[in-house]
């Protein structure tokens, strides 16, 4: 890349790029537009860039913002939100005289807001929300006459909100969840007290904070003792970052209208999920744990740790949490299209073949990340359609990590109690409590079968020794896949795409059987599954683009030689048959 000296714009956003951002990009002297958001990039923000527009949002960047950020003197747009940046913002940020929009939201930044922001006179948008900024809002920001959008919400700011321009045009949502702020009634914060009261508070508050810190430290030490199964490496890597951005119980109560049943989205093994709406009109899902249930507290701990650290477009994201002695809740991204289970088994819901295939690719990609791309392999342990949620664009997100496990010390571990769902549990997990990545692969195979047959593994037709996986395998061997898949996916034999659809579904079911083999050693892994599913989709897309697969063979079989993927799955199917 460093040799593309004429390159002016580069957009690689929303992919799965990993590793560090190479310093060679700094050699691109004509580059003015760089978009790498929505990837899995790690490391720090390069300090050598000189660019107009920079988007590194939604990655896994860590460390502090270098003082060399002041070298971006020509930059007009910088977005490094949704990362894991820490430390304080350097005062050199004031050197960015051309800056129009800056977002540092959803990081772990702390310390005071630099007063040097006042030197960025061109600023129109500034988003510092959901960090851990402390201190007062610099009064010098009143000099930013062009500032139209300001978001300082969900920090730890205190003191009086400035009243001069441009603050007269801001609303309360710019300052929400900064419990130490005060101002007039228009910002919905308490009025500022007289100096005499403030002087007293200077002595009282440190004492209270010290006591709270002591209690929190003792509480955290007790929680650490409970983690008997996690390895030392896992503890080093997983820190509950979500605890740094807590919301209050009162905020959740207001967001859900008192946890009204009309906002209930569903119930699970350890609690209930409600739809909530915050004052800034953001819709969220709020998972409330029933602490009367055994294992609920541990489930809350696990979800906090897992979801606050993993980052992937197909995993549900934690926005915040509420942790009190008698109440535990998680604030998650709201998925307006509900669960895959709803789309498969409720009336008046339908997904076509390509939609179902795309959803399975999304789920497989999430599991591939958990199993192979994260620092410590994570096993979900409870994959099923109700834990697969769909957003506005029908993109799938794997949710509910309440019983997930870290494989910090090897490829497997054993637990005494099995909490997963009947029908989706791998045999070795259900009978012996052995937790491995191959157990998730088995569950994924069952979910694939259910998705394309619309038959649950607990369906009443599966009695005795007959299970969903064996039922599908038997029909594959008999070349009768048409008899098991959802008939709405195929249409009639007169349909010009009938043969290509049948061939596509046969390949998908071969993969599902390869995932759900009885022996863990015979199952494919999620890297293979992702590659195979993508190949199946490409092949099907090509066939439908040219009007389907032409055939004049007996038994209506495809004449052309099967590709390598089908040969692989056929071989595994023969093993299952034997």
From TrEMBL:
UniProt catalytic activity: L-seryl-[protein] + ATP = O-phospho-L-seryl-[protein] + ADP + H(+); L-threonyl-[protein] + ATP = O-phospho-L-threonyl-[protein] + ADP + H(+)
GO CC annotation: plasma membrane
Pfam families: LRR_1, LRR_8, PK_Tyr_Ser-Thr
InterPro entries: Kinase-like_dom_sf, Leu-rich_rpt, LRR_dom_sf, Plant_receptor-like_S/T_kinase, Prot_kinase_dom, Protein_kinase_ATP_BS, Ser-Thr/Tyr_kinase_cat_dom, Ser/Thr_kinase_AS
Binding site for ATP: 287
Membrane topology (UniProt): Single-pass membrane protein
Subcellular location: Cell membrane
Record-listed E.C. numbers: 2.7.11.1
The entry's keywords: ATP-binding, Cell membrane, Glycoprotein, Kinase, Leucine-rich repeat, Membrane, Nucleotide-binding, Phosphoprotein, Receptor, Repeat, Serine/threonine-protein kinase, Signal, Transferase, Transmembrane, Transmembrane helix
Residue intervals of the Protein kinase domain: 259-536
CDD domains named in the record: STKc_IRAK
Family the UniProt entry places it in: Belongs to the RLP family.
Protein name: non-specific serine/threonine protein kinase
Organism (species): Rosa chinensis
């Amino acid at each position: 890349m460093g040799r593309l000296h004429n390159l002016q714009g580069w957009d690689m956003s929303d992919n799965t790029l990993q590793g560090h951002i190479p310093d060679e990009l700094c050699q691109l002297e004509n580059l003015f537009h760089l978009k790498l958001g929505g990837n899995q990039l790690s490391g720090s923000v390069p300090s050598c860039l000189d660019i107009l527009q920079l988007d590194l949002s939604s990655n896994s960047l860590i460390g502090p913002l270098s003082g060399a950020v002041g070298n971006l003197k020509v930059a007009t747009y910088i977005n490094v939100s949704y990362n894991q940046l820490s430390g304080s913002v350097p005062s050199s940020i004031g050197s960015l005289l051309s800056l129009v929009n800056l977002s540092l939201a959803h990081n772990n930044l702390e310390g005071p807001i630099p007063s040097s922001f006042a030197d960025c006179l061109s600023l129109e948008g500034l988003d510092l929300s959901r960090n851990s900024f402390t201190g007062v809002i610099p009064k010098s920001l009143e000099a930013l006459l062009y500032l139209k959008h300001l978001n300082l919400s969900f920090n730890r700011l205190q003191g009086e909100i400035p009243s001069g321009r441009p603050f007269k045009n801001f609303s309360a949502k710019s300052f929400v969840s900064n419990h130490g702020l005060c101002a007039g009634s228009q910002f919905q914060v308490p009025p500022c007290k007289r100096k005499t009261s403030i002087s007293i508070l200077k002595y009282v508050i440190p004492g209270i904070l010290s006591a709270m810190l002591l209690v929190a430290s003792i509480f955290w030490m007790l929680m650490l003792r409970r983690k008997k199964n996690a390895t030392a490496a896992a503890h080093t890597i997983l820190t509950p970052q979500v605890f740094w951005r807590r919301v209050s119980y009162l905020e959740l109560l207001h967001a859900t209208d008192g946890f009204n049943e009309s906002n209930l989205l569903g119930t699970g093994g350890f609690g209930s999920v409600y739809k909530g709406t915050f004052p800034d009109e953001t819709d969220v899902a709020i998972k409330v744990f029933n602490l009367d249930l055994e294992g609920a507290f541990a489930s809350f701990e696990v979800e906090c740790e897992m979801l606050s650290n993993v980052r992937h477009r197909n995993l549900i994201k934690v926005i915040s949490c509420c942790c009190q002695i008698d109440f535990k809740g998680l604030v998650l991204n709201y998925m307006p299209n509900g669960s895959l289970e709803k789309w498969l088994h409720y009336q008046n819901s339908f997904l076509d073949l390509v939609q179902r295939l795309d959803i399975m690719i999304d789920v497989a990609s999430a599991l591939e990340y958990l199993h192979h791309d994260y620092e410590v392999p994570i096993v979900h342990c409870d994959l099923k359609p109700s834990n697969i949620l769909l957003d506005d664009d029908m993109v799938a997100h794997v949710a509910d990590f309440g019983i997930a496990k870290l494989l910090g010390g090897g490829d497997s571990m054993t637990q005494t109690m099995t909490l997963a769902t009947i029908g989706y549990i791998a045999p070795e997990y259900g009978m012996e409590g052995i937790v491995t990545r191959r157990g998730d692969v088995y569950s994924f195979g069952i979910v694939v079968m259910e998705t394309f047959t619309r038959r649950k593994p607990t369906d009443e037709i599966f009695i005795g020794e007959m299970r969903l996986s064996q039922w599908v395998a038997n029909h594959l061997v008999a070349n009768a896949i048409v008899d098991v898949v959802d008939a709405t996916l195929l249409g009639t034999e007169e349909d010009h795409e009938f043969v290509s659809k049948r061939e596509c579904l046969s390949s998908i079911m071969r993969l599902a059987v390869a995932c759900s083999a009885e022996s863990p050693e015979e199952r494919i892994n999620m890297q293979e599954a992702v590659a195979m599913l993508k190949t199946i989709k490409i092949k099907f897309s090509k066939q439908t683009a040219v009007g389907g697969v032409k055939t004049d063979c007996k038994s209506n079989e495809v004449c052309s030689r099967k590709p390598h993927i089908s040969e692989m799955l056929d071989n595994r199917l023969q093993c299952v048959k034997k």
